[in-house]
Amino acid sequence: MECLTELCSGLPTDPLPPSQPSRDTKVPHAPVRNPKLTAEERKLALRNALRYIPPEHHDTLAPEFASELKDYGHIYMYRFRPTSITMRAYPIDMYPCQCLQAAAIMHMIMNNLDPNVAQFPHELVTYGGNGQVFSNWAQFRLVLKYLSEMTDEQTLKMYSGHPLGLFPSSRQAPRVVITNGMVIPNYSSREMYQKMFALGVSMYGQMTAGSYCYIGPQGIVHGTTITVLNAGRKYLGSGDLSGKVLVTSGLGGMSGAQAKAAVIAGCIGVIAETDAAAINKRHAQKWLMEKTDDLDDLVQKIRNARDEKRAVSIGYLGNIVDVWEILADVYESTGELLVDLGSDQTSCHNPFGGGYTPVQLTHDEMKSMVASDPAEFKSLVDESLRRQVDAINILSAGGMYFWDYGNAFLLQARRAGAEVSDGGDTSGTKFRYPSYVQHIMGDIFSLGFGPFRWVCCSGDPVDLQETDRIAADVLKKICKDVPADVECQYKDNIQWIEQAYEHNLVVGSQARILYSDQRGRVELALAFNEAIASGRIKAAIVLSRDHHDVSGTDSPFRETSNIYDGSAFCADMAVQNFVGDSFRGATWISLHNGGGVGWGEVINGGFGLLLDGSPEAGERARHMLAWDVSNGVARRSWSGNYLAEETIKRTMEADPHLQVTVPYHVTDDSLIDGCFT
């Protein structure tokens, strides 16, 4: 059996590992790609791949790599995939490293590729259908080798999955700097992405896939729970969702969390999924409580759960369009509205590459047609989106509240010709239905709250439980002297953290998430660091966050969709965040094109920060986490958001070194109007 030391020894070429002639049918695989390479471009892709291989093996591997390109649309180098070691996050002290920070990064990388965590582990896809950790297995092997050799005075540079090398730096510098998909803007189209990925020169890292910070579906469980609770307050006038029905779709990667989140929020979750493997996986995990493949049975299950006001998750093996249409038929024929809240979490950022199954096809038919007839497939997707929106519009007119979950569903529907436009929109970011940022999460971001995560690198569940107790104590103390709107958010998260263990949320690494503002994040980090120093927690902790946060992402159709000063399409905030984190103490940093809503639609970045119990780690956390929140709050304040303005003013009062430009406001709109009449 291959050990971690052997895994970190670089690319095995003497001898070569045995070939893996076909895909393993026991695991799910990424859809076949159709990058439409010319004959010369296919040769270039092969030439590029062979750069990783000593020349004496080119005769053996060139035909093999060419076959992968022909059969799958990409050269994954399956031969170099480790097969004799379990891919998982091992305790940090097991990694053969000279540098604790490097060992922590290896822990996170291997978690992203754990088959229990990753969506398509053999294709190095963590989630979202195409969220790559690396482009091929040679890169994985080389990265682990570099990390095992790294000292505290070197930095590994990552170019879209490719390890450029170790470069001299300082102890204060990040150990790894990652960029994914940084393409010249005029060439950042989906067609160019497919080509560049096939050539091996660029990569779509989603958000936390290519930044090595994914923590399994727990992250989206919490975010979805908070979103649904706040949707209930906003749309239904109550945080009590007993007997209320949420209809949505997706049980695969991140969307697989919806079933669990619905039950935690106390409602009836109805989730459609076309992939039998995905729905069966969530049912086996007990995240999905019931499942059916019969629409009439589904309708009856909804009625029963409503009558009983029973919190339950119901999975429908089939297409979400069929679900929306039967619910619309019931409403139009009887007046019975069986849904209160609606959304969608299909991978509409990648609708023509397998992220969305059109209603006319089965899941297997979709996987085949994506590559065999992309033009016809696009036509079917567009028709399916129009049908889906038509049914949603009927139910919305009857009193259902629908929101876009930031997966580019409404954006793709508008491009398909569906009736989703807001006739009065001048910003280009508003639709008939709001994004969840515009109506639900935007105010939370403006308060400085967002997804704060930590991973116990000991791999010991006892350490994670200890951090839960510490987190609850810290938040309760903070909660005693905060404004009412902030207190509400803290109370939701105190309830979450106190119940987290019993909800059995861990998949992969011993990780936890909650939403917190700047004060909470800093105080949590310092409390964790002190607990490590005292021995209360046995090993180091990695702090990170989803890129979907206050400051980390510029995305006009999601994270910054509630910014209306004309800057929603500007990416200064995310880039500044990446740069600012780098010199304030981050252990590693990443900046990505794409993530959530798709390639070319968003710029986002993230970080990892190691707490090892040292005073230096505490100082790094204090400075970096403060910037990582205040940057976005300041930008939102300048755009005219009053909640963000109040938040940044309170932050300036607490820290005299913080000085932010606060906007003046036009109080008489007629003055503006009069200047142009």
Topology of helices and strands:
Elements (H helix, E strand, L loop, with lengths): L3 H4 L31 H11 L8 H15 L27 H13 L12 E3 L3 E2 L4 H13 L4 E6 L2 E7 L7 E5 L9 H10 L18 H19 L8 E5 L8 H8 L2 E6 L2 H9 L5 E3 L2 H14 L3 E6 L2 H15 L6 E2 L8 H5 L7 H10 L1 H24 L3 E2 L6 H7 L20 H11 L3 E7 L4 H18 L5 H16 L11 E6 L1 H17 L6 E5 L7 E2 L17 H11 L5 E6 L9 E9 L3 H24 L3 H13 L14 H6 L3
Parallel strand pairs: 3-5, 5-16, 6-7, 6-10, 7-9, 8-9, 10-11
Antiparallel strand pairs: 1-2, 3-4, 12-13, 12-14, 14-17, 15-17, 16-17
What does this molecule look like?
By secondary structure, the protein is of the alpha/beta class. The protein has 23 helices and 17 strands. Strands 3, 4, 5, 12, 13, 14, 15, 16 and 17 form a nine-stranded mixed β-sheet that branches. A six-stranded parallel β-sheet has the order 8-9-7-6-10-11, sandwiched between helices. A hairpin with a 2-residue loop joins strand 3 (154-159) and strand 4 (162-168). Helix 2 crosses helix 3 and helix 17 crosses helix 19. The longest helix has 24 residues, at 374-397. It starts with a helix and ends with a helix. The mean pLDDT is 93.
Q: Regions with pLDDT < 50 over 5+ consecutive residues?
A: none
Could you say which structural class the secondary elements and strand pairing correspond to? alpha/beta
Give the percentage of residues in beta strands. 5-15%
How many DSSP H or I helices? 23
- Indicate the overall shape: globular
**Rg value:** 24 Å
Largest pleated sheet: 9 strands, mixed
Calculate the terminal CA-CA distance, rounded to whole Å.
Answer: 79 Å
The percentage helix is 40-55%
Overall residue-averaged pLDDT value: 93
What is the β-strand count? Answer: 17
